[in-house]
Description:
The chain is an alpha/beta fold. It has 18 helices and 13 strands. It folds into 3 domains: 5-128, Response regulator (Rossmann fold, 3-Layer(aba) Sandwich); 166-297, Beta-Lactamase (2-Layer Sandwich), CATH 3.30.450.40; 321-511, Hypothetical protein af1432 (Orthogonal Bundle), CATH 1.10.3210.10. Helix content is 50%, strand content 15%. The relative contact order is 0.05. Fe (ii) ion binds next to loops.
Amino acid sequence: MNGKKFLVIDDDPLTRHLLSDILCSIGEYQTDVATNGTFGIQEVKANNYEIVFTDLTMPELNGLEVLKEVQKINPRLPVVVVTGMSTIDVAIKVMKEGANDFITKPFKIKTITSTVERILGEKLLLDRIGFNGNYQESIERLNAELFKKLQKINLLQAINAELDSMVDNNKIYQAIVAMASKLLIVQEASFGIIEDGYLRIKKAIGAPEKDIAITTPIFETILKTRSHYLANPGEINPHTGRALSYSFISIPFLIKDVVFGLLNLANKVDGSSFTDDDISLALTLVNKTAMRIENNVLYEIIYNNLVNSLKALVISIEARDPYTRFHSERVTTYALQIADVLNLADEDKDAIKFGGYLHDIGKIGIKDGILLKPGPLNEEELADVRLHPIIGDNILKPLKFFPKERQIIRYHHESYDGSGYPEGLAGEQIPMVARVLALADAYDAMTSSRPYRDAMSHEQSVEEIKRCTFSQFDGKIVEAFLQTPTGRGELLKVLPSSALGLRDERVIEYVH
Ligand SMILES: [Fe+2]
């Protein structure tokens, strides 16, 4: 028995005994009961309670009056008001008068447990920081503690926001080292991933950026227990094997319960050892980061699977129509050359890389009879073919991954003057990446032969493009195209390196 004692004041015997029984059942606690407020106050005067639970509506002293009396006797004794749902408004009023909490009938054991734990925890905290009657001093100390906690919470929030925006694992490694050294105020911080028996250091501040063999017993222990290792001055530094003159901690990163990497922190600037607070902060940081890395890995896996499936789909479309084989690849190459000259953002280039490849994916929905027709199409057939940007966009829409790629697919047949399809967008309304692809697509169509016509020469195609500047194409993009290797007339030759293996990139080279 740890001697913690509660008082339950309630005029209703059923509620009184039920609450008392619950309190005794959730821990090693004792309870006294009082049948009305007056008796309750007598008990408070005579005993040392941790918490007083009082009913709100009682015939003699009501809950509010009990609260006021208790505050006079012992202002630090927490009072919890017990109330029916219908009197919650009153209960809130009582809280404003200084009650610590209120619980509503019928009771939930979980609510009572968490209320008790919270109040006892707070008492412990106040006792620890010396809330010993000197209020001014105690309040200042409490304020300082709260301020420190607030700073850490703000910092953790900033960390969350920063990590959430990161998809590049290398940037995450750098960020965690910088954050950890700032949070725990240490002179040495490093992060490494475990690979082939070594801890490969990815980022270090104030510590050598040198790989470490993980053969020492300390590393073996961390790998086995999957929990952090704390060494105090005089103990061995697992990195150097020498006795430490300062505090050192190594925290494992777990992904699917396997140790993936280690965050090492050492040498606090103020020379002190790591506290429990420091350790819990570092663990929070590491767990959050591990989750982010795991998400990134999962994202990569899903993304790559998707990309490969979609590529397979494009290959199957192109396989149906021998005249368009490698069309998507050539178009992508031309579009990327234009993007280079225009100095587009990496994000746009990435969209072109994949969106260019997929731009005609909607043709999967066009019948062979139309797609492979060896002659010009009639109006109706043309209308069908013109659905392919929308069909393609619809294929990608549920995948959520590819917003810019979808713009390419949907708008690559729009014209600068608004005469294109499917929406008849004009000028800057057409997304830049789609305008770039439109030109690349048109150039490849002109320079490729079709069953019903021969390919145009490079010179003829360029003339045609120039003629259509500002009607079909954006002038800026035509200008950029003319500066690319393709625009300058260097021929592109596409060589399949193997039988269209999905992961086997086909070789594209220039023939001068
Ligand atoms: Fe198309």
